[in-house]
Amino acid sequence: MAGKNKTNRREQILQALAMMLETSPGKRITTARLAEQVGVSEAALYRHFPSKARMFEGLLEFIEDSLLSRINLIQDEEKDTLTRCKHVLQLLLSFAEKNPGITRLLNGDALQGEHERLRVRVDTLYAKIESQLKQILREKRLREGKGFDLDEGQLANLLLAYAEGRIAQFVRSNFKLKPTDYFELQWQFIHQQLLQS
Question: Is the pLDDT of residue 1 over 60?
């Protein structure tokens, strides 16, 4: 039973951290403020996480697990190249919209002044997503014998830059400008451009 309580407390701490990231944009989160939010002492926080960086890593693990596992599902369930790309972008934007506080980690906004390894971890996550998009685009050439006019790596970078830009606007607008706003219309335009290449 003690193990279950420890897990619940860890989750409670991470949820409180995510909520503080959402409700206190632009403010640095201290362990004292976080402990107060959770209703425990700072010492109790450190019994569950050895440092604040480890708390952020707990949230980053949640992001990685959520996004990468769903991207794998998209690849398993959908065979059309452009539909796969659309679903991956939609996943990123919807995830950001549903998790505004955590999105500040994806955007790097909440990591200013934090440990360098956290920013490296976010960069690595984006690199993995870009690599997945590149693979999806490359498979079109393998399946259909015809690819795109633009190199798959450059195209994957462009698609990811679109999603990152929408995520940055969401954070910059204090979560008012939703990442999924206009997505269907914008995707139709992107889709048409890709079909012409």
Answer: no
